[in-house]
Design a protein that fits this description.
The complex is a heterodimer of chains A (92) and B (265). With 92 residues, chain A is an alpha+beta fold. In chain A, 50% of the residues lie in helices and 14% in strands. Chain A starts with a strand and ends in an 8-residue tail after the last helix. Classes of the chains: A alpha+beta (92), B mainly alpha (265).
């Protein structure tokens, strides 16, 4: 599975590694729904660190779309809302 | 559905929408490549902009550091002259400058971080753009329009995601730089207003003015004492000289009067 951390690049995770990420993804989702900034930041930090530590960086010349995309480490709930509202992304 | 999945789907949907606009899939390749090259230019300009901001903050940090040191010296100078009130004022001033300096140091670190991230992003994009160009030529040479479609989709969504990511990174860097510029402008004004720096003929800072006055006062006393000493030593000889010739008469009279004026003050 390919996971991108926005602003950092892509990582390849095997199934077991991806399974570790799944609960964090759910927590992240709940934090956004509750508008819980501090829980969001803690979980996002944990998720980003997990992907960095267990994942293998994808070679930069690999052209592959990611299965999961994590906001950048310093993103706020608000920024993620904008991303999800589709108005924050322009593909050039 | 999870946040991470939703974000990835949004990126993919954007890529698909762009693909759908193209009639001939091979046309997509050239068009996209052109956009990638533009994006590379944008990200490099972004790196340069952040670097410019960082350098400006660095210059301001140096100016503020000088002011902090100057206030500290003023405080020491004032204490030496027995003016604790001025020393206190100088230290208060120093504390507020130090606060601004600390703030700038934090911003400087953030800019450095942005610059580093954008530099890495531009290297990643460069690698992907090079890969895309190779793939594009292979696809165009080898496949018919129909066959090319799947391969083009893969390559296109991969590069689109990178472009979207980098677009966001540039946006963040621009926001950060704009914030910084607003603050930097305020500090530049402060530095230029004379509130922090002495300018000849401009508004001089009050602490320095008072310290200078104390300094100038004692200089004048010293000079006066020296003149008095010179005059009393020279007076007998000048009177003698006067007795020998008429031209020095006016000078001698003045010289003779001055010690009296000095004594009276």
């Amino acid at each position: 599975m390919i996971v991108r951390i926005l602003g950092e690049g892509q990582y390849e995770l095997d199934e077991a590694e991806a399974a570790q990420l799944a609960p964090l993804d759910l927590e992240l989702d709940a934090a956004v729904d509750r508008d819980d900034e501090s829980a969001f930041r803690t979980t996002l930090g944990n998720a980003v660190r997990l992907v960095r530590s267990v994942g293998t960086p994808l070679p930069p010349d690999e052209l592959a779309a990611s299965d999961l995309i994590l906001p950048s480490l310093d993103a706020s709930v608000d920024e993620v809302r904008k991303l999800l509202a589709e108005d924050g992304i322009h593909l050039g | 559905m999870s946040v991470m999945k939703r974000v990835s789907l949004i990126f993919r949907a954007k890529a698909n929408k762009a693909l759908d606009r193209m009639e001939d899939p091979r046309e997509t390749l050239d068009y996209s490549y052109q956009q990638q090259v533009e994006m590379l230019t944008r990200v490099r300009r972004g790196v340069a902009d952040v670097a410019t901001s960082r350098k400006r903050v660095e210059l301001q940090m140096n100016s503020l550091q000088k002011e902090v040191t100057r206030r500290e010296n003023q405080a020491r100078d004032a204490l030496g002259k027995g003016r604790e009130d001025l020393a206190r004022a100088a230290l208060q001033n120093k504390a507020s400058l130090q606060g601004q300096l600390n703030d700038l140091q934090g911003q400087y670190a953030q800019l450095q971080d942005q610059e580093e991230k954008l530099t890495l992003a531009s290297q990643r994009l460069q690698a992907k753009v090079d890969a895309f160009r190779t793939k594009k030529e292979t696809i165009k040479a080898t496949y018919t329009a129909a066959e090319a479609q799947t391969r083009i989709n893969e390559a296109f969504s991969g590069i689109s995601e990178e472009m979207g990511d980098i677009g966001l990174a540039i946006q963040r860097a621009e926001d950060k730089t704009a914030q910084m510029q607003a603050r930097a402008g305020a500090i530049d004004e402060l530095l230029a207003s004379g509130a922090l720096e002495d300018h000849v003929g401009g508004q001089q800072d009050q602490i320095q003015a008072e310290l200078d006055a104390i300094g100038a006062g004692s200089d004048i006393d010293r000079e006066l004492a020296q003149m008095k000493g010179e005059l009393s030593a020279n007076a007998p000889r000048q009177i003698e000289a006067n007795a020998n010739g008429g031209s020095g008469a006016a000078e001698t009279t003045q010289a003779a009067e001055q010690p009296q004026a000095g004594d009276g003050s």
